[in-house]
Write a structure and sequence with these properties.
It is built from 11 helices and 13 strands. The chain is α+β, with helices and mostly antiparallel strands. It has an 8-stranded mixed beta sheet. A 5-stranded mixed beta sheet has the order 7-8-9-10-13. A hairpin with a 5-residue loop joins strand 5 and strand 6. About 55% of the residues are buried. The chain binds glycine (GLY). Glycine (GLY) binds next to strand 8. The site of glycine has 10 residues, from strand 8.
Length: about 350
């Protein structure tokens, strides 16, 4: 499929007339919604977007407000894809990634494969404000955090350890690890298998928040523990500026959750912002970026029997008018929105494919 030209008309056309592209009812209107501040984020960011708006109303910059929201997820042990309690890598070690960006100064900070620090988003803010660099990784990121007063702690909860051990015990019939016959009676393991045990492995714990304040400033933050049981040192899209998040004070802000490698290969969040720069609404920009992701997904192990991506990606965006939107590869995804004067709510995301069948 040839790339579409970057016109607003073509974006609208491809969004509504392509294979199965659909705009959710809430996303069809492109009329400006003026109530500011506003924050948009992933489905697990309901409390986070609420906190972000409260913080902006209290005078925080959008980037600080987004981090304040994301911190709630990083603290929550039931958020097994973010921060404390995150599912570890294949060696049982929790490695966290996060990034922040400020659309006014076009400054950013990020950390990747950070161990032992509960709030990687806070460390990312310090990288942005206390260094001339953008991204610190691994042991260097940890030393930087400790030097700036962050406390080291064990991030592997008992629940996450039991989930990891079950994965390790059952990963291969020809290694030395034997499953515990009683493991499946464990409530923590049952909880995990009911939630994430399907065939379509679906990492959905990453959290993203994009924020716009009443002065028209934008900022954003994304935080994750990454793919469950990932290769040690594997880094996804979340801490990569332009991939898991991007904002531009002249345009708006965007972020991603889902299959990180797909997002990296399309520079997902930056691409969303560029489509908005050329006139697309947030929802149209997310959909058009997902079309590019689908076109770029060619390696056989990434494709299902119908040639569609096995792994989903969700994109979130807002523009300077305060319009918000989101889109996902497959139907059924929701996203969080909060505007001044109203409680946070979940809305249906637009999508490319109506079903995985
Ligand atoms: N999107 C999160 C990750 O792939 O790590």
């Amino acid at each position: 499929m040839a790339p579409s030209p970057l016109t607003r008309r073509s974006l609208i056309t491809t969004a509504v007339a392509g294979a199965a592209a659909s705009l959710a009812p809430s996303a069809r209107s492109s009329s400006p919604q003026a109530a500011l501040p506003v924050a948009v984020g992933s489905v697990n960011a309901l409390a986070a977007v609420q906190r972000a708006v409260e913080r902006m109303l209290a005078g925080d910059l959008p980037v600080d407000a987004a981090v304040a929201g994301v911190s709630l997820n990083e603290d929550d042990p039931n958020e097994i894809g973010v921060g404390y309690g995150g599912i570890p890598n294949e060696e049982g070690v929790v490695q966290l990634d996060a990034a922040v960006m400020d659309g006014t100064t076009m400054a950013a900070g990020a950390v990747a494969a950070l161990e032992g620090i509960r709030h990687p988003s806070h460390v990312a803010l310090e990288v942005m404000r206390r260094t001339t660099r953008v991204l610190l990784v691994g042991e260097g990121a940890k030393r930087f955090a400790l030097a700036h007063g962050f406390k080291e702690e064990n991030l592997l909860t008992e629940r996450a350890r039991k989930i990891w051990l079950h994965w390790k015990d059952t990963a291969s019939p020809s290694d030395d690890w034997l499953p515990d016959p009683a493991a499946l009676d464990d409530p923590d393991l049952k909880w995990f298998l009911e939630r994430d045990g399907g065939d379509a492995f679906n990492p959905h714990g990453t959290v993203h928040v994009s924020a716009l304040d009443a002065a028209g400033r934008v900022g954003c933050c994304t935080s994750t523990s990454g793919l469950y049981f990932k290769l040690p040192g594997r880094v996804g899209d979340s801490p990569l500026i332009g991939c898991g998040l991007y904002c531009d004070g002249e345009v708006g802000s965007a972020g991603a959750t889902g299959h990180g490698e797909s997002c990296i290969l399309a520079a997902g969040a930056h691409t969303v912002v560029e489509f908005m720069r050329h006139g697309a609404t947030p929802t149209e920009a997310c959909l058009e970026t997902l079309r590019r992701v689908v076109r770029n997904t060619r390696r056989p192990f990434l494709l299902d029997a119908k040639g569609r991506p096995k792994n989903g990606l969700s994109l979130y965006a807002l523009n300077l008018k305060g319009e918000v939107g989101a889109a996902a590869t497959y139907r059924g995804r929701r996203f969080a929105v909060c505007r001044a004067g109203a409680p946070a709510r979940l809305e249906e995301a637009a999508y490319l494919f109506a079903s995985r069948d």
